[in-house]
Amino acid sequence: MSKYTQDKNFIYYENTNIPINKLNIRNLKILEEEERKLLLKGYEYFHKNLSEKTIFDNSYLKELHKRSFNKLYNFAGKYRTVNISKGYTTFCQVKFLEQTSNEIFKKLASENYLRNYSAKPKEEFAQRIAYYMCELIALHPFFELNG
Q: Can you spell out the DSSP letters for 22-55?
């Protein structure tokens, strides 16, 4: 798990790349395993509750993150409050985070959340879903566990 550089390095235990967590886990491998378990539970919950009425927007994304990682992190479901980068990649600046997120989800809504692609070739759907995934990756709204 490679970590991010930030304006202020306040989400990690001092001199580590381990995020401060509610379970006070200080071993990276154990923490990663706990994250995987929580993510799987989150996927199961959201898949089970997915319906035609599901609206994938800011609220849904935040709820997905919160429900998945609230047991472990205080920042679960909250957009980050500092600029972060990884290597040579700088993610969306905090001052533009909400605005850019709103624009992404507004565009997704204008495409009817890709529901109209069920009758089109799979390649077209794959291109559109890849586009939105890349936009969310570049947005990188949370401190950790954006993927």
A: TT----HHHHHHHHHHHHHHHHHHHHHT--TT--
